[in-house]
Design brief:
The structure is a single chain. By secondary structure, this protein is α+β, with helices and mostly antiparallel strands. The chain has seven helices and 19 strands. Strands 2, 5, 7, 8, 9, 11, 13 and 14 form an eight-stranded antiparallel β-sheet that branches. A three-stranded antiparallel β-sheet has the order 6-12-10, with no helix packed on it. Strands 1-17 form a two-stranded antiparallel sheet. Helix 1 runs antiparallel to helix 2 and helix 6 packs across helix 7. The longest helix has about 40 residues. It is elongated. It binds zinc ion (ZN). The site of zinc ion has 5 residues, from loops.
Length: about 325
């Protein structure tokens, strides 16, 4: 388009120049003619200039739209980075107080059961939930969206993928054995983004699944039912207080208190693993379940027990 316009400009210039080459003979008439010609020429140039300027602006806007066309751009204010999970994290204080998050398009990443919950685990905080996988199981994107990050993090997530969705959520899939997408790729809900695995800081094959809003983790169970594979509500009313309740000093204090109380009771709250014992055997002995045992100990269902290992009973 710019090329066509410049051709047109050249043509107009030539045409007016040629007209100038055959002026009327009398001086007076020539001056008047020349003045009107100049006015016309100036007007033409101005008109062309404004057309070209408008076109350039339009092209620039088009380019911007193309580069900035990422899901939930209005929420993230155009921020998009492939530099890891927290590259676009918005300070908690600046997260909006409430916003609706459309969860209707959710497809469970994998049909499986939870082996570790969101929450305090050992001395770290577990910002996602763990789902049992067999290495090679296809893992699907929870919603339609665009892949923001594909990385390998040896001491943490292992091979992981972060996808941003138009509802403002980002989902993270960790410990994959293989990544099947590339950064910037658009994916449909349920589309395979990688294969289940045991890479990174992981004690057995599982999918570490996180949901984040503006970079801040939220317990995925607030949105989804992992028994049915369906969203809890189609349109989730996100409120900062409810979504980030784990941050409150009250729950942190409770956690500290609970931990202190348990450890003060000493070894009575613990079980020392003997050779040949299984998690289900230990669970049965103390009237609890394998998943509860796994949860309080921060281990996966098929973690290998070693004789002498101390396990919290519940
Ligand atoms: Zn995990």
């Amino acid at each position: 388009m710019k090329y066509v316009l410049s051709l047109l400009a050249t043509f107009l210039f030539c045409a007016t120049t040629m007209a100038q080459m055959t002026p009327p003979r009398t001086n007076k008439k020539y001056t008047a003619y020349n003045e009107s010609l100049n006015k016309q020429k100036l007007a033409d140039i101005r008109r062309l200039d404004s057309i070209i300027a408008a076109k350039i602006q339009e092209d620039d806007l088009d380019d911007f739209a193309m580069e900035g066309d990422n899901p939930a751009d209005e929420i993230y204010e155009g921020a998009w980075s492939t530099e890891g999970v927290n590259a676009n994290r918005v300070d908690y204080a600046k997260v909006p107080d409430s916003v609706y998050i459309d969860c209707s398009g959710y497809v469970a990443p994998i049909e499986s059961y939870i082996t570790s919950e969101f929450g305090p685990r050992w001395r770290r905080y577990h910002y996602g939930i763990d789902l049992k996988v067999t290495i090679g199981d296809p893992v699907g994107s929870a919603f339609t969206g665009k892949v923001r990050v594909c990385r390998y993090d040896r001491g943490g997530y292992g091979s992981y993928v972060v996808v941003r969705h138009s509802n403002g959520l980002e989902t993270l899939y960790g410990h994959l054995s293989e990544i099947k997408v590339i950064e910037g790729q658009e994916v449909r809900a349920g589309q395979c983004i990688g294969l289940g695995g045991n890479t990174g800081r992981s004690t057995g094959p599982h999918l570490h699944f996180e949901t984040r809003f503006l970079g801040n983790p939220i317990n995925p169970k607030k949105f989804f039912n992992f028994d049915t594979g369906k969203p809890l509500v189609a349109n989730y009313l996100f409120t900062k207080e409810q979504a980030f309740d784990y941050r409150s000093s009250a729950s942190a204090a409770k956690y500290k208190k609970g931990k202190g109380k348990k450890s003060s009771k000493g070894s009575g709250r613990y079980h020392k693993v003997r050779s040949g014992e299984t998690l289900s055997g230990i669970a049965a002995r103390y009237g609890t379940t394998v998943s509860k045992l796994c949860k309080v100990n921060g281990i996966s269902r098929n973690a290998k027990l070693r004789p002498g290992q101390r396990l919290r009973r519940g």
